[in-house]
């Protein structure tokens, strides 16, 4: 395998709910969820049923023909959101690629082909393709791949005056994550998002939300934009939409997508019957009566218990941030140390920017798993506090 990942020497044989099991039978509490992908945990019976039933019918026909399950999933996503139209792909990066094309094509179809540049934000993460690493703007992702794809202007996250200065005659859109996941679980304020909406309306720009990580209930709402009351023109989804099966989606209004006519975009595997069956099964669960209320209740409980840990371990945890079950612990020691200590507790988490440990449990967790997680974090913090106290004593 191409050595592009620093993989942990740990392999899982099976999963059930919020738990993963190794071949040796060791059990790990999964607070990574495949980086916000396994929203309904592992081996959810409804998803298993949908996939296996569809697998006995038809796997792939291509987008040269109608795919009824895809039409149904698109209708349901539109009914639940601001959007009028959907294009399905296989990943978040592809969904963002489509969103960029939609924004540029909108301006061209409006008689302004010179408007192709998109304003993005420092700390963002939009994917690993050449276009999306250019949109991300992080030097460590761009290095060695030649000149960055042209058309992206980065400004500081949350700085509305910088956004105003960046808008020019070639600007087509503004692209933002309502909550930066890889960037350290940094939440864009409703005031900032409203100001972006006003600027887009004023300058005839499209507002594009990257909800690859936040979409499909991760924040306690179906989509994170609902928390601010600010509707985008275009939105990228992936991760939780397939509950573990590869899927991406680009949602848009009729006006924003007016340039996307026959032949302007395509995908061989996007929207295949297997993915569409699973996507509909995910929505069946997440949109069922009481699901979001139950998830929000447990998210609040987890955040309250984490706040107590922060007070008890003030030398280790500097801040608890995030929304719903996208939670960040900003650390005082290195975040990687905490990830390692938690793995020793048989709990898996993932680090992010700004020295943050991300907690991304399945949306189905209950009080039992929360109690287990708090115990793991408490013990890990206690060990880190002792280790760093000893190191500080030796250094002095």
Provide a compact summary of the structure.
The protein is of the alpha/beta class.
Notes on the structure:
The N and C termini lie far apart (46 Å). The protein has helices spanning 33-36, 45-55, 68-79, 92-109, 130-136, 139-142, 160-166, 190-203, 273-286, 291-312, 335-344, 367-395, and strands spanning 14-16, 19-21, 27-30, 85-89, 117-121, 152-155, 171-176, 179-180, 186-187, 206-210, 234-237, 248-252, 317-323, 326-331, 347-348, 350-352, 356-359. The mean pLDDT is 97. 38% of the residues lie in helices and 18% in strands. The protein is globular and about 65 Å long. It has two domains: 14-30 and 289-395, Aspartate Aminotransferase, domain 1 (Alpha-Beta Complex); 46-286, Type I PLP-dependent aspartate aminotransferase-like (Major domain) (Aspartate Aminotransferase, domain 2, 3-Layer(aba) Sandwich).
Count of discrete structural domains: 2
Give the neighbour order of strands across the main sheet: 4-12-11-10-7-5-6
Structural class: alpha/beta
Distance between the termini: 46 Å
The tally of helices reads 12
Shape: globular
Q: What's the CATH architecture of the largest domain?
A: 3-Layer(aba) Sandwich
User: What's the β-strand tally?
Assistant: 17
Largest sheet entry: 7 strands, mixed
What's the CATH H-level homologous superfamily of the largest domain? Type I PLP-dependent aspartate aminotransferase-like (Major domain)
Approximately how much beta-strand content do the residues carry?
15-25%
- pLDDT < 50 stretches: none
Listing every helix as H and every strand as E from the N terminus to the C terminus, the arrangement reads EEEHHHEHEHHEHEEEHEEEHHEEHEEEH
Measured as a percent range, the helix fraction is: 25-40%
CATH class of the largest domain: Alpha Beta
Oligomeric composition of the shown chains: single chain
CATH topology of the largest domain: Aspartate Aminotransferase, domain 2
CA radius of gyration: 21 Å
